[in-house]
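Fill in residues.
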C-alpha cells in the first residue's frame, strides 16, 4: 500500500467538530490512516461514533445532548463517477430503542438505540466537500434554536432566524423542509442545505433530514437528533474541489467505467435497465405478480404483513403502470448518470393535485401494507412526508400497526384512530404525529415500545400480548421493508442482522439469489455477510446502492488509486468493508445489541400466509436460528452476537 503523497488526494483532509453546548468549533486535519482503513463516509463516521461511545459509554437516550450526529462525504463524491453524489449521516438512532423491560417479551435485553447510517443524494454532500470538509461532527445541545453555516472552510454557529419558524397551534415550529431550504438559499446564494422539518423539531422517532427539498437521510431518526440539539439546518457553500492523485489516469479509467455502467443500464438482463424509466417502482409488479424477468410474485405485503397477495384490481390502482402514468422527467441525485432512478411526478386531479417527486417502491409497498390503494393519495402523502420531515418507510410500519390496533378495538380510547385503507385517516394521523397535535399522534411519534405501553395503559394485562403482536416495529425495530418478511429466509436474516436495525433492506438484499435457488443456512449467511460488507464500502465511497459495478474490480481499484493515491488489492479493499461492518457491530454491542435482538421474530410473522403463490409460508424460528448461527460463525462473532477484542485486533480496529 502506498503512503499518502503530498497530503490528501480525493479527500479534503479536514474534519470539523462542533459543540453546540458551548458554541465551540474545532477544525482538525484528518489522520490519513483513518481514510486508508475506513475509506470515508460511513466508515470514517462509524469510527468517530465508536470512539465517542468508548470514551463516554453508551448513549442511553439518543435525544440526550450526549448523542453525536455526523454529516459527511466520501472520496468519490463530486467526481464524474455515476451516482457520486451520495453523502453520509451517522448517529445513534431514535427509533431502534427498547430501553425499558418489555413485559410482553420474556427474552428482552435493554437496547439504547443503534448506530445508524443514512445515505442521501442532493447537492449537500458534494457542497460540504467543496466547502473544505470531509465531515462535520456535531455534539451537545444549543440553548436556543441555531443553524450551522459552513462556507469556504469556515464553520459558524448562528442563531436561527425567526422567519424559519411559524406558529402552529400556539407553538413555535420550524416551517416545512422546502420553505427552510428556500429561505436559506436566499440568505446564502449558491449554497445547499440539509434541514429538519416540523417532525424532527418535535422529536418524532422516525423524523428524517432533508437535503435540497426531496433527498432524505431517511431512516433511524436523524431529524429527531437535530431537534434534540436545537439545530434547524446546516448550510454549506464552497467552490474548491479535492485534488486528484493522477487526474489524467482518473479520467481515462473513469471513461471506461462509465461505459460499463451505461452498457449495464442498456442491457435488459440487468435490473438496472428498468431504473431510468420505472425507477424502483418496477419492484411493485415484480413483488405482486412476478412481472419483469418472469419471476413469481406474491410477496407484496398487505394488511400489516398478514398477506403477500391481494385483489389484482386493487393492485392495478397502485402498481408500476399506475405510477408511470404520473411520472415526469428525471429528477435525480447530484452526479447521477445513466441509472437515474427518480423522476418528477404530477397529479392533476383533485383532491390530491400537485407536483413533486415519484414515490419509491418501498414507500408505496409499505403504504399498500396499510391497504391504501389510491395512487394520487400515495403521491400526496409522500409529498407531505418530505415537507414535514418524516421517513416514509417507518411511517408505513407504524401506521399499519396503528390500523390493526384500531381494527381490533385497542385504540378505542383515542379520538380519530386510522382505519385500514383510508387515505384521509392516514393524512390526519401523519400530521398529528409530525406536530404531536393529538394524544394518538404523540403516542405514535415515539419509539414503538413506548407506544405499546401507552396503548396498554389502563387495559387488562391479558391484552398486552395482543397489542404487541400488532406492532412489527416492537423491540427496537426500524420497520420491515416492502418485501413480505415471511417469504425469504435469507432476506429475513438480512433484516435481522442489519447494523442499523431490524427490518432494514439496504445492507443486504437476497431476493434474486433466493429466487435463483440459494437456500442452505451457510450459503445464505455468507451471502448476507458479503452483501453487508459490500454495502459498507459503497456507502463509505459516497456511491449509491444502485451503482452497477464491482468496487473490488481491477478497473475500480485503479480508478480509486488515481483518485486518492492509495493502492489496494481486491482482498484488502473487501477487508475494509468487513472492518467497517464489524466496527459498527461492536458499537452496537456497547448500545446493548446481541443475539436476543437479532433472534427476535415478531409473533405475527410466524403466522402463515393464506393467499397467493407463497401461501403457507411464515418465518420459521428454527431456520432463522440456524442461519443466525451460520452468520455469526461467518462474521467471527460469538454465539451471542458479540464482537470480541481478538477480532477487533485482527481487523486493525484496536491495537
Ligand atoms: S440511481 Fe437513483 S438513488 Fe441512485 S444516485 Fe441515481 S437518482 Fe439517486
Amino acid at each position: 500500500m502506498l503512503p499518502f503523497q503530498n497530503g490528501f488526494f480525493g479527500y479534503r483532509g479536514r474534519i470539523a467538530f462542533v459543540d453546540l453546548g458551548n458554541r465551540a468549533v474545532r477544525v482538525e486535519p484528518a489522520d490519513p490512516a483513518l481514510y486508508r482503513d475506513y475509506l470515508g463516509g460511513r466508515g470514517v463516521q462509524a469510527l468517530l461514533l465508536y470512539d465517542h461511545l468508548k470514551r463516554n459509554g453508551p448513549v442511553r437516550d439518543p435525544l440526550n445532548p450526549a448523542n453525536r450526529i455526523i454529516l459527511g462525504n466520501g472520496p468519490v463524491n463530486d467526481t464524474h463517477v455515476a451516482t457520486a453524489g451520495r453523502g453520509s449521516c451517522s448517529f445513534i438512532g431514535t427509533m431502534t430503542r427498547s430501553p425499558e423491560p418489555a413485559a410482553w417479551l420474556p427474552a428482552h435485553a435493554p437496547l439504547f438505540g443503534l448506530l445508524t447510517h443514512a445515505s442521501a443524494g442532493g447537492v449537500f454532500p458534494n457542497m460540504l466537500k467543496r466547502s473544505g470538509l470531509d465531515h462535520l461532527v456535531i455534539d451537545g445541545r444549543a440553548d436556543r434554536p441555531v443553524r450551522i453555516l459552513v462556507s469556504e472552510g469556515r464553520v459558524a454557529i448562528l442563531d436561527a432566524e425567526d422567519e424559519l419558524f411559524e406558529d402552529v397551534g400556539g407553538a413555535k415550529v420550524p416551517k416545512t423542509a422546502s420553505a427552510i431550504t428556500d429561505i436559506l438559499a436566499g440568505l446564502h446564494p449558491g449554497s445547499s442545505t440539509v434541514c429538519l422539518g416540523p417532525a424532527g423539531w418535535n422529536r418524532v422517532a422516525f423524523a428524517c433530514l432533508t437535503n435540497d427539498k426531496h433527498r432524505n437521510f431517511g431512516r433511524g431518526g436523524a431529524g429527531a437528533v437535530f431537534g434534540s440539539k436545537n439545530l434547524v439546518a446546516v448550510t454549506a457553500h464552497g467552490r474548491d474541489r479535492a485534488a486528484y492523485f493522477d487526474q489524467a489516469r482518473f479520467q481515462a479509467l473513469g471513461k471506461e467505467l462509465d461505459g460499463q455502467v451505461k452498457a449495464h443500464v442498456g442491457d435488459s438482463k440487468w435490473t438496472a435497465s428498468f431504473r431510468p424509466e420505472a425507477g424502483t417502482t418496477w419492484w411493485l409488479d415484480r413483488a405482486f405478480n412476478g412481472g419483469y424477468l418472469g419471476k413469481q410474485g406474491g410477496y407484496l405485503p398487505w394488511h400489516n404483513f398478514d398477506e403477500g397477495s391481494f385483489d389484482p384490481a386493487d393492485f392495478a390502482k397502485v402498481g408500476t403502470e399506475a405510477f408511470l402514468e404520473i411520472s415526469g422527467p428525471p429528477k435525480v441525485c447530484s452526479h447521477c448518470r445513466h441509472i437515474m432512478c427518480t423522476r418528477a411526478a404530477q397529479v392533476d386531479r383533485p383532491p390530491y393535485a400537485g407536483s413533486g417527486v415519484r414515490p419509491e417502491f418501498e414507500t408505496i409497498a409499505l403504504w399498500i401494507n396499510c391497504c391504501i390503494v389510491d395512487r394520487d393519495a400515495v403521491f400526496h402523502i409522500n409529498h407531505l412526508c418530505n415537507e414535514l420531515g418524516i421517513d416514509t418507510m417507518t411511517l408505513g410500519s407504524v401506521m399499519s400497526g396503528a390500523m390493526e390496533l384500531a381494527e381490533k378495538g385497542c385504540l378505542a380510547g383515542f379520538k380519530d384512530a386510522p382505519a385500514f385503507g383510508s387515505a384521509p385517516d392516514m393524512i390526519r394521523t401523519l400530521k398529528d404525529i409530525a406536530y404531536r397535535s393529538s394524544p394518538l399522534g404523540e403516542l405514535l411519534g415515539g419509539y414503538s415500545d413506548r407506544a405499546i405501553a401507552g396503548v396498554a395503559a389502563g387495559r387488562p394485562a391479558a391484552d398486552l400480548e395482543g397489542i404487541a403482536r400488532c406492532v412489527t416495529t416492537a423491540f427496537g425495530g426500524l420497520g420491515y421493508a416492502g418485501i413480505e418478511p415471511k417469504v425469504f429466509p435469507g432476506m429475513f436474516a438480512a433484516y435481522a442482522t442489519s447494523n442499523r436495525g431490524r427490518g432494514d433492506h439496504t445492507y443486504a438484499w437476497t431476493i434474486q439469489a433466493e429466487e435463483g435457488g440459494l437456500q442452505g443456512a451457510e450459503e445464505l449467511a455468507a451471502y448476507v455477510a458479503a452483501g453487508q460488507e459490500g454495502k459498507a464500502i459503497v456507502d463509505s465511497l459516497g456511491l449509491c446502492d444502485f451503482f452497477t459495478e464491482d468496487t473490488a474490480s481491477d478497473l475500480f481499484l485503479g480508478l480509486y488509486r488515481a483518485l486518492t493515491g492509495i493502492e489496494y488489492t481486491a482482498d484488502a479493499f473487501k477487508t475494509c468493508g468487513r472492518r467497517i461492518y464489524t466496527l459498527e457491530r461492536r458499537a452496537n454491542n456497547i448500545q446493548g445489541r446481541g443475539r436476543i435482538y437479532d433472534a427476535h421474530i415478531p409473533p405475527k410473522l410466524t403466522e402463515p400466509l393464506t393467499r397467493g403463490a407463497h401461501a403457507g409460508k411464515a418465518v420459521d424460528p428454527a431456520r432463522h436460528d440456524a442461519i443466525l448461527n451460520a452468520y455469526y460463525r461467518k462474521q467471527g462473532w460469538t454465539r451471542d452476537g458479540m464482537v470480541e477484542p481478538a477480532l477487533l485486533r485482527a481487523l486493525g480496529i484496536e491495537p
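The pocket of iron/sulfur cluster is lined by residues 83, 121, 332-333, 336, 339-342, 544, 546 (CB under 6 Å).
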